[in-house]
Design brief:
about 550 residues, alpha/beta, HATC_C_dom, Transposase, DUF659
Length: about 550
Protein backbone atom coordinates (compact mmCIF):
# COMPACT_ATOMS: atom_id res chain seq x y z
CA UNK A 1 0.00 0.00 0.00
CA UNK A 2 2.84 2.38 0.85
CA UNK A 3 4.57 1.59 -2.45
CA UNK A 4 1.43 2.27 -4.46
CA UNK A 5 0.86 5.53 -2.61
CA UNK A 6 4.42 6.64 -3.34
CA UNK A 7 4.08 5.84 -7.07
CA UNK A 8 0.83 7.78 -7.23
CA UNK A 9 2.52 10.80 -5.63
CA UNK A 10 5.36 10.65 -8.16
CA UNK A 11 2.91 10.55 -11.09
CA UNK A 12 1.01 13.54 -9.68
CA UNK A 13 4.22 15.54 -9.24
CA UNK A 14 5.38 14.73 -12.77
CA UNK A 15 2.04 15.84 -14.16
CA UNK A 16 2.24 19.16 -12.32
CA UNK A 17 5.70 19.83 -13.79
CA UNK A 18 4.55 19.32 -17.44
CA UNK A 19 0.83 20.05 -17.57
CA UNK A 20 0.57 20.12 -21.38
CA UNK A 21 2.39 16.84 -22.03
CA UNK A 22 1.53 13.57 -20.31
CA UNK A 23 4.53 11.53 -19.34
CA UNK A 24 5.00 7.91 -18.49
CA UNK A 25 5.57 6.64 -15.01
CA UNK A 26 9.07 7.48 -13.81
CA UNK A 27 11.02 6.35 -10.85
CA UNK A 28 12.66 8.77 -8.42
CA UNK A 29 16.00 8.41 -10.18
CA UNK A 30 14.44 9.21 -13.55
CA UNK A 31 12.63 12.29 -12.22
CA UNK A 32 15.87 13.75 -10.94
CA UNK A 33 17.41 13.61 -14.42
CA UNK A 34 14.30 14.77 -16.22
CA UNK A 35 14.86 16.89 -19.38
CA UNK A 36 12.21 18.65 -21.46
CA UNK A 37 11.62 16.84 -24.79
CA UNK A 38 11.53 18.55 -28.18
CA UNK A 39 7.88 19.65 -28.50
CA UNK A 40 8.23 20.78 -32.11
CA UNK A 41 8.92 17.24 -33.29
CA UNK A 42 6.10 14.83 -32.30
CA UNK A 43 8.17 11.79 -33.27
CA UNK A 44 10.76 12.67 -30.64
CA UNK A 45 8.00 12.47 -28.01
CA UNK A 46 7.37 8.83 -28.91
CA UNK A 47 11.10 8.02 -28.91
CA UNK A 48 11.51 9.50 -25.45
CA UNK A 49 8.53 7.64 -23.98
CA UNK A 50 5.79 10.23 -24.35
CA UNK A 51 2.53 9.90 -26.22
CA UNK A 52 0.56 12.91 -27.45
CA UNK A 53 -2.88 13.43 -25.98
CA UNK A 54 -5.45 11.45 -27.98
CA UNK A 55 -8.30 13.37 -29.50
CA UNK A 56 -11.82 12.10 -29.87
CA UNK A 57 -12.16 10.96 -33.47
CA UNK A 58 -15.23 10.36 -35.58
CA UNK A 59 -16.71 6.96 -35.00
CA UNK A 60 -16.54 6.95 -31.20
CA UNK A 61 -20.12 8.17 -30.78
CA UNK A 62 -23.14 5.93 -30.35
CA UNK A 63 -24.55 6.89 -33.73
CA UNK A 64 -21.28 6.11 -35.50
CA UNK A 65 -20.99 2.76 -33.74
CA UNK A 66 -24.57 1.90 -34.65
CA UNK A 67 -23.86 2.38 -38.37
CA UNK A 68 -20.37 0.75 -38.25
CA UNK A 69 -18.76 3.68 -40.03
CA UNK A 70 -15.23 2.48 -39.28
CA UNK A 71 -15.94 -0.99 -40.68
CA UNK A 72 -17.49 0.56 -43.76
CA UNK A 73 -14.41 2.67 -44.35
CA UNK A 74 -12.27 -0.47 -44.16
CA UNK A 75 -14.54 -2.29 -46.62
CA UNK A 76 -14.52 0.66 -49.01
CA UNK A 77 -10.77 0.29 -49.25
CA UNK A 78 -10.88 -3.48 -49.79
CA UNK A 79 -9.45 -4.56 -53.13
CA UNK A 80 -11.25 -7.68 -54.41
CA UNK A 81 -9.24 -10.54 -55.93
CA UNK A 82 -8.58 -10.63 -59.64
CA UNK A 83 -10.53 -12.79 -62.05
CA UNK A 84 -7.67 -15.27 -62.47
CA UNK A 85 -7.76 -16.06 -58.77
CA UNK A 86 -11.54 -16.19 -58.67
CA UNK A 87 -11.99 -18.58 -61.58
CA UNK A 88 -9.23 -21.02 -60.62
CA UNK A 89 -7.84 -21.47 -57.15
CA UNK A 90 -10.49 -19.66 -55.13
CA UNK A 91 -13.34 -21.41 -56.95
CA UNK A 92 -11.72 -24.81 -56.39
CA UNK A 93 -11.19 -24.08 -52.71
CA UNK A 94 -14.73 -22.83 -52.26
CA UNK A 95 -16.07 -25.98 -53.93
CA UNK A 96 -13.96 -28.15 -51.61
CA UNK A 97 -15.19 -26.15 -48.64
CA UNK A 98 -18.80 -26.56 -49.76
CA UNK A 99 -18.28 -30.30 -50.23
CA UNK A 100 -17.01 -30.65 -46.66
CA UNK A 101 -19.91 -28.62 -45.29
CA UNK A 102 -22.42 -30.88 -47.09
CA UNK A 103 -21.24 -34.04 -45.36
CA UNK A 104 -23.69 -33.48 -42.51
CA UNK A 105 -26.59 -33.42 -44.95
CA UNK A 106 -25.34 -36.47 -46.87
CA UNK A 107 -25.11 -38.44 -43.65
CA UNK A 108 -28.91 -38.27 -43.30
CA UNK A 109 -29.54 -39.95 -46.65
CA UNK A 110 -28.90 -43.40 -45.20
CA UNK A 111 -31.89 -43.22 -42.88
CA UNK A 112 -34.07 -40.61 -44.61
CA UNK A 113 -33.55 -41.71 -48.20
CA UNK A 114 -33.20 -39.40 -51.20
CA UNK A 115 -34.86 -38.79 -54.56
CA UNK A 116 -32.68 -38.34 -57.63
CA UNK A 117 -34.14 -35.79 -60.06
CA UNK A 118 -32.76 -35.16 -63.54
CA UNK A 119 -33.79 -32.75 -66.27
CA UNK A 120 -32.40 -31.50 -69.58
CA UNK A 121 -31.61 -27.99 -70.77
CA UNK A 122 -29.65 -26.13 -73.46
CA UNK A 123 -27.10 -23.44 -72.55
CA UNK A 124 -26.51 -20.17 -74.50
CA UNK A 125 -24.07 -21.98 -76.81
CA UNK A 126 -26.72 -24.59 -77.67
CA UNK A 127 -24.93 -27.33 -75.75
CA UNK A 128 -27.31 -29.95 -74.29
CA UNK A 129 -26.95 -30.35 -70.53
CA UNK A 130 -28.49 -32.74 -68.01
CA UNK A 131 -28.43 -31.75 -64.36
CA UNK A 132 -28.93 -34.02 -61.36
CA UNK A 133 -30.47 -32.94 -58.06
CA UNK A 134 -30.63 -35.02 -54.87
CA UNK A 135 -33.62 -34.01 -52.78
CA UNK A 136 -35.46 -35.12 -49.66
CA UNK A 137 -37.18 -33.38 -46.76
CA UNK A 138 -34.00 -31.35 -46.09
CA UNK A 139 -34.20 -29.69 -49.49
CA UNK A 140 -32.57 -30.02 -52.94
CA UNK A 141 -28.83 -30.49 -53.33
CA UNK A 142 -27.15 -29.94 -56.68
CA UNK A 143 -25.03 -32.98 -57.56
CA UNK A 144 -23.67 -32.45 -61.07
CA UNK A 145 -24.41 -31.24 -64.60
CA UNK A 146 -23.34 -33.32 -67.58
CA UNK A 147 -22.40 -31.82 -70.94
CA UNK A 148 -24.01 -34.09 -73.55
CA UNK A 149 -22.56 -32.36 -76.59
CA UNK A 150 -21.76 -34.87 -79.34
CA UNK A 151 -23.68 -37.67 -77.60
CA UNK A 152 -26.78 -39.43 -78.85
CA UNK A 153 -29.31 -39.01 -76.05
CA UNK A 154 -31.03 -42.38 -76.26
CA UNK A 155 -32.28 -44.52 -73.39
CA UNK A 156 -28.93 -46.28 -73.01
CA UNK A 157 -26.94 -43.07 -72.64
CA UNK A 158 -29.40 -41.47 -70.21
CA UNK A 159 -29.70 -44.62 -68.09
CA UNK A 160 -25.90 -44.84 -67.95
CA UNK A 161 -25.69 -41.28 -66.59
CA UNK A 162 -28.42 -41.99 -64.04
CA UNK A 163 -26.62 -45.12 -62.82
CA UNK A 164 -23.36 -43.19 -62.41
CA UNK A 165 -25.06 -40.59 -60.23
CA UNK A 166 -26.85 -43.31 -58.25
CA UNK A 167 -23.45 -44.83 -57.40
CA UNK A 168 -22.15 -41.37 -56.49
CA UNK A 169 -25.09 -40.68 -54.17
CA UNK A 170 -25.21 -44.21 -52.79
CA UNK A 171 -27.21 -47.14 -54.15
CA UNK A 172 -28.79 -47.87 -50.77
CA UNK A 173 -29.77 -44.21 -50.29
CA UNK A 174 -31.80 -43.68 -53.48
CA UNK A 175 -35.53 -44.36 -53.22
CA UNK A 176 -36.70 -43.18 -56.65
CA UNK A 177 -35.60 -41.41 -59.84
CA UNK A 178 -37.92 -38.64 -61.04
CA UNK A 179 -37.90 -37.39 -64.65
CA UNK A 180 -40.44 -35.92 -67.03
CA UNK A 181 -42.80 -38.08 -69.09
CA UNK A 182 -40.77 -38.17 -72.31
CA UNK A 183 -40.65 -41.66 -73.90
CA UNK A 184 -36.84 -41.76 -73.78
CA UNK A 185 -36.90 -40.93 -70.05
CA UNK A 186 -39.49 -43.63 -69.42
CA UNK A 187 -37.35 -46.19 -71.26
CA UNK A 188 -34.23 -45.09 -69.37
CA UNK A 189 -36.10 -45.36 -66.07
CA UNK A 190 -37.14 -48.94 -66.81
CA UNK A 191 -33.49 -49.83 -67.50
CA UNK A 192 -32.53 -48.37 -64.12
CA UNK A 193 -35.24 -50.44 -62.42
CA UNK A 194 -33.84 -53.59 -64.03
CA UNK A 195 -30.38 -52.85 -62.64
CA UNK A 196 -31.58 -51.72 -59.19
CA UNK A 197 -34.92 -53.43 -58.38
CA UNK A 198 -35.37 -51.44 -55.15
CA UNK A 199 -35.22 -48.08 -56.99
CA UNK A 200 -38.39 -46.87 -58.72
CA UNK A 201 -38.67 -44.65 -61.76
CA UNK A 202 -41.42 -42.08 -61.12
CA UNK A 203 -42.69 -39.60 -63.72
CA UNK A 204 -43.06 -36.01 -62.59
CA UNK A 205 -46.60 -35.40 -61.29
CA UNK A 206 -46.47 -31.71 -62.22
CA UNK A 207 -45.51 -32.56 -65.79
CA UNK A 208 -48.34 -35.12 -65.90
CA UNK A 209 -50.90 -32.56 -64.74
CA UNK A 210 -49.56 -30.03 -67.22
CA UNK A 211 -50.01 -32.51 -70.07
CA UNK A 212 -53.57 -33.19 -68.91
CA UNK A 213 -54.32 -29.46 -68.86
CA UNK A 214 -52.93 -29.13 -72.38
CA UNK A 215 -55.17 -31.96 -73.58
CA UNK A 216 -58.18 -30.13 -72.12
CA UNK A 217 -57.37 -26.46 -72.81
CA UNK A 218 -55.51 -26.90 -76.11
CA UNK A 219 -57.11 -29.89 -77.79
CA UNK A 220 -55.73 -30.74 -81.23
CA UNK A 221 -58.06 -30.98 -84.20
CA UNK A 222 -57.15 -34.44 -85.47
CA UNK A 223 -59.18 -37.39 -86.63
CA UNK A 224 -58.20 -39.48 -83.62
CA UNK A 225 -59.01 -36.59 -81.29
CA UNK A 226 -62.32 -35.59 -82.88
CA UNK A 227 -64.55 -36.14 -79.83
CA UNK A 228 -62.19 -34.32 -77.46
CA UNK A 229 -61.82 -31.39 -79.83
CA UNK A 230 -65.59 -31.09 -80.22
CA UNK A 231 -66.07 -30.77 -76.46
CA UNK A 232 -62.97 -28.70 -75.58
CA UNK A 233 -62.37 -26.37 -78.54
CA UNK A 234 -64.35 -23.58 -76.82
CA UNK A 235 -61.72 -23.48 -74.07
CA UNK A 236 -59.02 -23.09 -76.71
CA UNK A 237 -60.90 -20.21 -78.30
CA UNK A 238 -61.37 -18.36 -74.99
CA UNK A 239 -57.75 -18.74 -73.90
CA UNK A 240 -56.49 -17.83 -77.39
CA UNK A 241 -58.59 -14.66 -77.39
CA UNK A 242 -57.19 -13.72 -73.97
CA UNK A 243 -53.65 -14.07 -75.30
CA UNK A 244 -54.54 -11.90 -78.31
CA UNK A 245 -55.94 -9.15 -76.05
CA UNK A 246 -52.88 -9.27 -73.81
CA UNK A 247 -50.51 -8.97 -76.77
CA UNK A 248 -52.59 -6.17 -78.31
CA UNK A 249 -52.28 -4.10 -75.13
CA UNK A 250 -48.66 -4.89 -74.28
CA UNK A 251 -47.27 -4.54 -77.82
CA UNK A 252 -48.67 -1.01 -78.34
CA UNK A 253 -47.03 1.72 -76.30
CA UNK A 254 -50.12 3.94 -76.24
CA UNK A 255 -52.43 1.08 -75.27
CA UNK A 256 -50.01 -0.02 -72.56
CA UNK A 257 -49.83 3.56 -71.26
CA UNK A 258 -53.63 3.67 -71.01
CA UNK A 259 -53.69 0.33 -69.21
CA UNK A 260 -51.09 1.49 -66.66
CA UNK A 261 -53.26 4.48 -65.81
CA UNK A 262 -56.13 2.22 -64.77
CA UNK A 263 -54.23 -0.64 -63.12
CA UNK A 264 -51.21 -1.01 -60.88
CA UNK A 265 -50.98 -4.70 -61.69
CA UNK A 266 -49.37 -5.83 -64.92
CA UNK A 267 -50.57 -8.24 -67.57
CA UNK A 268 -48.45 -11.36 -67.24
CA UNK A 269 -46.27 -12.45 -70.14
CA UNK A 270 -46.17 -16.16 -69.30
CA UNK A 271 -43.66 -18.32 -71.15
CA UNK A 272 -44.98 -21.26 -73.15
CA UNK A 273 -42.92 -23.66 -71.04
CA UNK A 274 -44.64 -22.50 -67.87
CA UNK A 275 -47.01 -25.04 -66.40
CA UNK A 276 -50.70 -24.29 -67.18
CA UNK A 277 -49.80 -20.98 -68.83
CA UNK A 278 -53.30 -20.43 -70.20
CA UNK A 279 -54.87 -20.80 -66.74
CA UNK A 280 -52.41 -18.31 -65.26
CA UNK A 281 -53.35 -15.76 -67.95
CA UNK A 282 -57.08 -16.24 -67.40
CA UNK A 283 -56.64 -15.84 -63.65
CA UNK A 284 -54.92 -12.51 -64.16
CA UNK A 285 -57.64 -11.41 -66.62
CA UNK A 286 -60.35 -12.10 -64.05
CA UNK A 287 -58.39 -10.14 -61.48
CA UNK A 288 -58.11 -7.14 -63.86
CA UNK A 289 -61.65 -7.30 -65.25
CA UNK A 290 -62.90 -3.97 -63.89
CA UNK A 291 -59.69 -2.11 -64.78
CA UNK A 292 -59.70 -3.31 -68.39
CA UNK A 293 -63.39 -2.52 -68.80
CA UNK A 294 -62.83 1.00 -67.46
CA UNK A 295 -59.97 1.40 -69.94
CA UNK A 296 -61.96 0.47 -73.07
CA UNK A 297 -64.91 2.73 -72.19
CA UNK A 298 -62.68 5.71 -71.49
CA UNK A 299 -62.39 8.66 -73.87
CA UNK A 300 -58.70 8.02 -74.51
CA UNK A 301 -59.44 4.57 -75.91
CA UNK A 302 -62.14 5.97 -78.20
CA UNK A 303 -60.11 8.99 -79.34
CA UNK A 304 -56.92 7.07 -80.11
CA UNK A 305 -56.71 5.78 -83.70
CA UNK A 306 -54.12 3.34 -84.95
CA UNK A 307 -53.69 1.10 -87.95
CA UNK A 308 -55.66 -1.83 -86.49
CA UNK A 309 -59.03 -0.29 -85.68
CA UNK A 310 -60.91 -3.56 -86.23
CA UNK A 311 -58.85 -5.41 -83.63
CA UNK A 312 -59.30 -2.55 -81.15
CA UNK A 313 -63.06 -2.79 -81.67
CA UNK A 314 -62.96 -6.57 -81.13
CA UNK A 315 -60.97 -6.14 -77.90
CA UNK A 316 -63.54 -3.67 -76.59
CA UNK A 317 -66.46 -5.91 -77.49
CA UNK A 318 -65.00 -8.97 -75.78
CA UNK A 319 -63.96 -7.13 -72.61
CA UNK A 320 -67.51 -5.82 -72.27
CA UNK A 321 -69.13 -9.15 -73.13
CA UNK A 322 -70.59 -10.79 -70.00
CA UNK A 323 -70.92 -14.15 -71.72
CA UNK A 324 -67.20 -14.21 -72.47
CA UNK A 325 -66.42 -13.51 -68.81
CA UNK A 326 -68.85 -16.26 -67.78
CA UNK A 327 -66.90 -18.69 -69.94
CA UNK A 328 -63.66 -17.60 -68.22
CA UNK A 329 -65.24 -18.13 -64.79
CA UNK A 330 -66.42 -21.61 -65.81
CA UNK A 331 -63.00 -22.63 -67.13
CA UNK A 332 -61.29 -21.42 -63.96
CA UNK A 333 -63.92 -23.12 -61.83
CA UNK A 334 -63.54 -26.70 -63.09
CA UNK A 335 -59.76 -26.41 -63.56
CA UNK A 336 -59.20 -25.00 -60.05
CA UNK A 337 -58.80 -28.47 -58.40
CA UNK A 338 -56.21 -29.43 -61.03
CA UNK A 339 -54.40 -26.12 -60.60
CA UNK A 340 -54.33 -26.45 -56.79
CA UNK A 341 -52.93 -29.97 -56.95
CA UNK A 342 -50.27 -28.82 -59.39
CA UNK A 343 -49.27 -25.96 -57.09
CA UNK A 344 -49.07 -28.31 -54.09
CA UNK A 345 -46.78 -30.72 -55.96
CA UNK A 346 -44.73 -27.97 -57.60
CA UNK A 347 -42.63 -27.47 -54.47
CA UNK A 348 -39.62 -28.99 -52.78
CA UNK A 349 -41.74 -30.31 -49.91
CA UNK A 350 -42.35 -34.07 -49.50
CA UNK A 351 -45.62 -35.00 -51.21
CA UNK A 352 -45.18 -38.54 -52.53
CA UNK A 353 -47.51 -40.00 -49.89
CA UNK A 354 -50.21 -37.45 -50.75
CA UNK A 355 -50.38 -37.94 -54.53
CA UNK A 356 -52.63 -41.01 -54.52
CA UNK A 357 -55.31 -39.34 -52.41
CA UNK A 358 -54.96 -35.98 -54.18
CA UNK A 359 -55.69 -37.54 -57.58
CA UNK A 360 -58.97 -39.10 -56.39
CA UNK A 361 -60.07 -35.94 -54.57
CA UNK A 362 -59.15 -33.74 -57.53
CA UNK A 363 -61.16 -35.82 -60.01
CA UNK A 364 -64.25 -35.75 -57.80
CA UNK A 365 -64.02 -31.95 -57.38
CA UNK A 366 -63.70 -31.44 -61.15
CA UNK A 367 -66.81 -33.56 -61.69
CA UNK A 368 -68.76 -31.63 -59.05
CA UNK A 369 -67.85 -28.29 -60.66
CA UNK A 370 -68.88 -29.44 -64.16
CA UNK A 371 -72.17 -30.96 -62.99
CA UNK A 372 -72.99 -27.88 -60.95
CA UNK A 373 -72.51 -25.65 -64.01
CA UNK A 374 -74.48 -27.94 -66.32
CA UNK A 375 -77.12 -28.48 -63.61
CA UNK A 376 -76.90 -32.22 -64.04
CA UNK A 377 -77.56 -34.86 -61.41
CA UNK A 378 -74.90 -37.33 -60.36
CA UNK A 379 -76.49 -40.28 -62.16
CA UNK A 380 -76.92 -38.38 -65.43
CA UNK A 381 -74.40 -38.45 -68.25
CA UNK A 382 -72.34 -35.43 -69.30
CA UNK A 383 -70.42 -35.60 -72.56
CA UNK A 384 -67.96 -32.93 -71.48
CA UNK A 385 -67.27 -34.63 -68.15
CA UNK A 386 -66.76 -37.95 -69.91
CA UNK A 387 -64.01 -36.40 -72.06
CA UNK A 388 -62.32 -34.66 -69.11
CA UNK A 389 -62.53 -37.80 -66.96
CA UNK A 390 -60.95 -39.94 -69.66
CA UNK A 391 -58.06 -37.46 -70.05
CA UNK A 392 -57.35 -37.36 -66.30
CA UNK A 393 -57.64 -41.11 -65.79
CA UNK A 394 -55.43 -41.90 -68.78
CA UNK A 395 -52.73 -39.55 -67.50
CA UNK A 396 -52.95 -41.01 -64.00
CA UNK A 397 -52.80 -44.61 -65.22
CA UNK A 398 -49.63 -43.83 -67.19
CA UNK A 399 -47.87 -42.03 -64.32
CA UNK A 400 -48.83 -43.85 -61.11
CA UNK A 401 -46.38 -46.36 -59.68
CA UNK A 402 -46.49 -48.89 -56.80
CA UNK A 403 -44.46 -46.37 -54.83
CA UNK A 404 -47.44 -43.98 -54.71
CA UNK A 405 -49.68 -46.73 -53.39
CA UNK A 406 -47.14 -47.89 -50.82
CA UNK A 407 -46.54 -44.37 -49.51
CA UNK A 408 -50.30 -43.80 -49.29
CA UNK A 409 -50.82 -47.09 -47.41
CA UNK A 410 -48.15 -46.27 -44.84
CA UNK A 411 -49.66 -42.90 -44.04
CA UNK A 412 -51.06 -43.38 -40.51
CA UNK A 413 -53.91 -40.98 -41.27
CA UNK A 414 -55.18 -43.36 -43.96
CA UNK A 415 -54.24 -46.73 -42.44
CA UNK A 416 -57.07 -48.55 -40.68
CA UNK A 417 -56.66 -50.42 -37.41
CA UNK A 418 -56.93 -53.83 -39.09
CA UNK A 419 -54.39 -53.00 -41.79
CA UNK A 420 -51.86 -51.79 -39.23
CA UNK A 421 -52.25 -54.94 -37.16
CA UNK A 422 -52.03 -57.13 -40.23
CA UNK A 423 -48.73 -55.54 -41.37
CA UNK A 424 -47.06 -55.26 -37.93
CA UNK A 425 -48.60 -58.33 -36.29
CA UNK A 426 -48.46 -56.41 -33.03
CA UNK A 427 -51.11 -54.83 -30.85
CA UNK A 428 -49.13 -51.73 -29.90
CA UNK A 429 -50.44 -49.92 -32.96
CA UNK A 430 -53.86 -50.03 -31.29
CA UNK A 431 -52.60 -47.95 -28.37
CA UNK A 432 -54.78 -44.91 -27.55
CA UNK A 433 -51.94 -42.44 -28.09
CA UNK A 434 -51.07 -44.05 -31.42
CA UNK A 435 -54.64 -43.82 -32.68
CA UNK A 436 -55.04 -40.23 -31.51
CA UNK A 437 -51.80 -39.03 -33.06
CA UNK A 438 -52.57 -40.49 -36.47
CA UNK A 439 -54.65 -37.42 -37.27
CA UNK A 440 -52.58 -34.90 -35.32
CA UNK A 441 -48.87 -35.23 -35.98
CA UNK A 442 -46.68 -35.51 -39.07
CA UNK A 443 -46.46 -39.06 -40.57
CA UNK A 444 -42.68 -39.15 -40.13
CA UNK A 445 -42.95 -38.23 -36.45
CA UNK A 446 -45.71 -40.82 -35.99
CA UNK A 447 -43.55 -43.64 -37.32
CA UNK A 448 -40.55 -42.45 -35.30
CA UNK A 449 -42.69 -42.46 -32.14
CA UNK A 450 -44.70 -45.65 -32.60
CA UNK A 451 -42.88 -47.74 -35.22
CA UNK A 452 -39.84 -48.91 -33.26
CA UNK A 453 -41.28 -52.43 -32.85
CA UNK A 454 -41.41 -52.80 -36.65
CA UNK A 455 -38.00 -51.46 -37.76
CA UNK A 456 -38.29 -52.60 -41.39
CA UNK A 457 -41.64 -50.90 -42.00
CA UNK A 458 -40.50 -47.88 -39.99
CA UNK A 459 -37.41 -47.47 -42.15
CA UNK A 460 -39.42 -47.70 -45.39
CA UNK A 461 -42.07 -45.28 -44.14
CA UNK A 462 -39.56 -42.65 -43.04
CA UNK A 463 -37.82 -42.80 -46.41
CA UNK A 464 -41.06 -42.57 -48.41
CA UNK A 465 -42.52 -39.65 -46.45
CA UNK A 466 -39.43 -37.56 -47.18
CA UNK A 467 -39.64 -37.78 -50.98
CA UNK A 468 -41.03 -35.33 -53.51
CA UNK A 469 -43.35 -36.16 -56.40
CA UNK A 470 -42.08 -33.79 -59.11
CA UNK A 471 -38.91 -32.63 -60.85
CA UNK A 472 -39.61 -28.94 -60.16
CA UNK A 473 -36.33 -28.47 -58.28
CA UNK A 474 -34.42 -29.38 -61.44
CA UNK A 475 -36.53 -26.95 -63.47
CA UNK A 476 -35.79 -24.13 -61.04
CA UNK A 477 -32.09 -24.95 -61.00
CA UNK A 478 -31.85 -23.94 -64.67
CA UNK A 479 -32.68 -20.39 -63.60
CA UNK A 480 -29.52 -20.39 -61.49
CA UNK A 481 -27.57 -21.91 -64.36
CA UNK A 482 -28.83 -19.30 -66.86
CA UNK A 483 -27.91 -16.52 -64.42
CA UNK A 484 -24.32 -17.77 -64.24
CA UNK A 485 -23.94 -18.89 -67.86
CA UNK A 486 -25.71 -16.05 -69.67
CA UNK A 487 -25.28 -14.47 -73.09
CA UNK A 488 -22.80 -12.02 -71.56
CA UNK A 489 -20.73 -14.85 -70.07
CA UNK A 490 -21.08 -17.30 -72.92
CA UNK A 491 -17.37 -18.24 -73.09
CA UNK A 492 -17.43 -20.02 -69.75
CA UNK A 493 -16.71 -23.74 -69.96
CA UNK A 494 -19.33 -26.29 -68.87
CA UNK A 495 -17.08 -27.59 -66.08
CA UNK A 496 -16.52 -24.13 -64.59
CA UNK A 497 -20.22 -23.35 -64.90
CA UNK A 498 -21.00 -26.61 -63.09
CA UNK A 499 -18.63 -25.67 -60.23
CA UNK A 500 -20.21 -22.23 -59.89
CA UNK A 501 -23.73 -23.67 -59.88
CA UNK A 502 -22.65 -26.29 -57.34
CA UNK A 503 -21.35 -23.65 -54.94
CA UNK A 504 -24.24 -21.24 -55.52
CA UNK A 505 -27.00 -23.85 -55.18
CA UNK A 506 -25.61 -25.67 -52.14
CA UNK A 507 -24.75 -22.67 -49.96
CA UNK A 508 -28.14 -23.06 -48.26
CA UNK A 509 -26.97 -26.31 -46.65
CA UNK A 510 -23.87 -24.83 -45.02
CA UNK A 511 -23.12 -21.83 -42.87
CA UNK A 512 -20.35 -20.59 -45.14
CA UNK A 513 -18.48 -17.33 -44.65
CA UNK A 514 -16.08 -15.45 -46.87
CA UNK A 515 -13.68 -14.49 -44.09
CA UNK A 516 -11.78 -17.77 -44.26
CA UNK A 517 -8.03 -17.57 -43.50
CA UNK A 518 -7.07 -20.00 -46.25
CA UNK A 519 -9.01 -18.08 -48.90
CA UNK A 520 -7.76 -14.73 -47.64
CA UNK A 521 -4.13 -15.84 -47.88
CA UNK A 522 -4.68 -17.09 -51.42
CA UNK A 523 -6.31 -13.80 -52.37
CA UNK A 524 -3.31 -11.82 -51.15
CA UNK A 525 -0.80 -14.06 -52.94
CA UNK A 526 -2.71 -14.11 -56.22
CA UNK A 527 -3.27 -10.35 -56.15
CA UNK A 528 0.44 -9.77 -55.66
CA UNK A 529 1.21 -12.02 -58.62
CA UNK A 530 -1.32 -10.26 -60.85
CA UNK A 531 0.11 -6.85 -59.98
CA UNK A 532 3.49 -8.01 -61.30
CA UNK A 533 1.99 -9.20 -64.60
CA UNK A 534 1.72 -7.06 -67.69
CA UNK A 535 -1.51 -6.66 -69.62
CA UNK A 536 -0.12 -8.95 -72.31
CA UNK A 537 0.04 -11.79 -69.79
CA UNK A 538 -3.70 -11.72 -69.16
CA UNK A 539 -5.65 -14.08 -71.46
CA UNK A 540 -8.62 -12.67 -73.35
CA UNK A 541 -10.82 -15.72 -72.88
CA UNK A 542 -11.47 -16.45 -69.22
CA UNK A 543 -11.69 -20.18 -69.84
CA UNK A 544 -8.61 -20.74 -72.01
Amino acid sequence: MSKLEEEATQRRDAKNKTPSLPCSMMSSSQSSSYTMPNISNPYSLRREGYEPKKRKVAGDGLLEKAFNLRDREILDGYVPPGYNALRTKLLDKEKENTESQLEATRSTWRTRGVTLVCDGWTDPQRRPLINFIAINENGPMFVRAVNCQGEYNDKWFISHLIKEVIIQVGVANVVQVVTDNAPVCRAAGLLVEQTYPHIFWTPCVVHTLNLAMKNICAAKNTEANEVTYEECHRITQVSGLAVMIRNFIMNHSMRLSMFNEFSKLKLLAVADTRFVASIVILKRFRLLKSQMQSMVISERWSDYRDDDVAKARLVKEKLLDDMWWDQINYILSFTEPIYKMLRLCDTDQPSLHLVFEMWDTMIMKVKASIYRHEKEKDFEESSFWSVVKKILEDRWSKSNTPLHCLAYSLNPRDVTMEFAKFIACLAEFGDADSLRDRLLIDPVLWWVSYGSTTPNIQSIAIKLFGQVSSSSCAERNWSTYSFIHSTKRNQITPQRAEDLVFVHSNLRFADLTIDEPELESDICVDDAREENCNDDDVPFDLDK
